Amino acid sequence: MNRSYWKRSAELVSALIAAITVVIGCHAAPVAPTVGPGDGHVKALSVAFPYGAQSVPILAVANYDLITVQFSAMFTTSAQPGPNASQKLIVYVNDASGKIVAQIWHDGNGQWGVRPGSGYSQSTLPNATNPWTKVEVILDQKAKKYSLKLTNGQTAVVLFDSVDYTDAAAGPPASIVFQRNGQGDPGLCYIDDISVGKGAVKMPDRLNAWVETAPRLNIVPSGKNVVLRVEADRATCASADQLDWSVADYLGHVVKTGALPVPSGTGKWATLLSLGALPAGYYALSGNFRTQGLDFSRCGSEPENVIAFGVLPALAALPLAHTDDSRFGAQGTNFIKSGKWMAGDPYDPLYPALGARWVNSSESWDQLEPDHAGQYMPKPTIGGEFAYAANHGMTYLTTTHGIPAWAMAVPPTDRTAALGGKIDSQAYPPQNAAQFEDFTTRFAHHMDQVRRAYFPTMAHNWYQISWEPDWHWKGTPRQYVDMASHAYTALHRGDPAARIMGPGTGVFDKTVEWLHTMLPLGLGKSLDGIATHAYYLGEGDPNHPPLPGQIFAPEDQKVIQDMREVKSLARRYLKPGARIIQSEWGLDYKGSYAIVNPAILRQLAAYMVRGHIILLGEGADTTYFFYTSDYAGESGFGLTFNLTMPDPNFGAIRVAPKPEFMACAAMTRVLEGTKTIGPLTGLPADCYGYAFDRAGKTVVAVWKAHPGASKISLPLAKGTSAQLIDFMGNPAAIESKGGRVTVAATEYPGYIEGVDASKLTIKVR
């Protein structure tokens, strides 16, 4: 579940959500996308959830005898083998009254079918290498029959020819409806290039804006004037008008308003909107044409009539003796600098803006020797993401999970699945320990050479030996402990400076369970530290998944208790100084992108920052943000809006920050390079606080877990002045009285510098 092409386990997707997202370029609501005869195309991607439907209108086809409804589709492969291995899709062509003109469907293992007037038929698409399938439904309005033609790679075939209309009484086509049924696991189905007739598309008027100096990141350095470029493509909005606009901060407070004259005429209109220098934080521009009602278009995962942008804090993070001392990492690569998918630096400028130094490198046995022993031939030089990470002075966690099927100790019950290539690479241990150690030693030796040559500021290579095994492992606890022992021996043999981390379980409760089971069996002797993810799936009753937009506060989900237990177990079973790395955690909207609103964005930001502060404050040395940018299939995990989603989906080329990105950027600058002192006690009810040593000075993060505000009094260090750094990274002096300072704790953490740590009541850790 790491790196750019990550797709989460099906268990994390709410089965309640009944939605399909069809994104049509960047269009302006409320005008619906339409397709009609002529020349052109429209993009529509992704059918992402288990239930629901989305309709796309068709215009002006009544006078045509033959009509071609065309689109492209791609289906992900389920992790679950069997007849539902590919995601299902049903497509209807309906008339204006809702009668079904034609119905086609896609099932597992490449089966396609139609429903003619007389019933159902199905066929299998011939094998081809291209995962995208071009689908053409040819409608004969005169004969009331239709055909289904598929093109996959170089193979084109008419699967069904001249079948009866599904409803003989249906009139001219008026809409295409894409629907996912509820079978199979909730993966993705991508839909692209819808067209009708010759492929024409009637696009509505569009209004968009972006940061002039950073159009693909939309973040401005501290102290710089914010200049937005505003553009409109007008077709029907041709008369003179006025654009009324406003800019709000993350709390919804309007900080700027104004109006711009819009001259008459069709085609493109553009102007620059100068907002001056703004405090650090998240901002959202909204507006509309006063007379004609056109508002800002929805692009990718960004909400309707929202142009998001940010201003970075002026704060500077503490310098690090070694890059692997960094407290912050992130998952996800983006191609913002080049603006071309899979081209150029995947980290610049998003990672420096966020303040994250750790990234992941996936180098597993099943990847490097998929067919037989001896395939792995280390390259003398590095390239790709590794090289860019080295250029930026970043640090990496190498994930080594995955056993090739030919080398796995598969029991007889799973042998058929293994031979068919349908066995999880983390299901069982290697069948030959010496062979496993030989490969692992050779790999570790190469990684040691890479670190010495290209990453001189890294003190160690860090290896995570399994990735969310609680979702994948089918072996016994003893087998896992033995496998970890062989990995530990081989990695240290090949790389004397190696640090071995595990087990990397995905759910925090499962981490505690695995450690309680396996540490007494000797797992601690094979680990230099604990790796875990911090997802909390016990969000209430498991039989009643969260409602759309229902996000749970980390303080209510055992994050504190679980982190304390992991820390206690590490002290009991591992060597002194063993690190704890939280290598993946984030939050989503628990629904579709259509439900997002400012309140959800604020809540997400508050919970994200609080969760990561808790992890660091309770004993984690490093914590990772998940994910850098939104993607189709799960809604809202990104720290940024993906403005081109879902094309590309992973590896965004144009983004805009969410409130959580700007709040996390403030947190990294305050807490990077700090040493954890511990959690505060004696605070008002529902309030939380953590103290950190920041180069000899104490900084305390405080907040209230639920709505409202409470006063918190803290002792001031002698000879110092206190300052409060707000949620977005804006510092301000605060007055002291009697050697103490008083601040208001809200849902949004603030940071107080200048506190006297010796007078704080800290929970013994």
| Percentage of residues in helical conformation | 10-25%
Q: In whole angstroms, how far apart are the ends?
A: 31 Å
The global form is globular
Strand content: 25-35%
The helix-and-strand class reads: alpha+beta
The fourth-level CATH homologous superfamily of the largest domain is Glycosidases
* Total number of strands: 40
Q: Architecture of the largest domain, according to CATH?
A: Alpha-Beta Barrel
Strand order of the largest sheet: 22-29-28-27-26-25-24-23
Radius of gyration: 28 Å
The CATH C-level name of the largest domain is Alpha Beta
Q: How would you characterize the overall build of this protein?
A:
The protein is built from eleven helices and 40 strands. It has 765 residues and is an alpha+beta fold. It folds into four domains: 171 residues, Exo-inulinase, domain 1 (Jelly Rolls, Sandwich), CATH 2.60.120; 92 residues, Macroglobulin (MG2) domain (Immunoglobulin-like); 351 residues, Glycosidases (TIM Barrel); 83 residues, Golgi alpha-mannosidase II (Immunoglobulin-like), CATH 2.60.40. The strands form nine sheets. It has an eight-stranded parallel sheet with strand order 22-29-28-27-26-25-24-23. A six-stranded antiparallel sheet has the order 2-11-4-5-6-7, with no helix packed on it. Strand 38 and strand 39 form a beta hairpin. It is globular and about 85 Å long. The two termini are 31 Å apart. The N terminus is likely disordered.
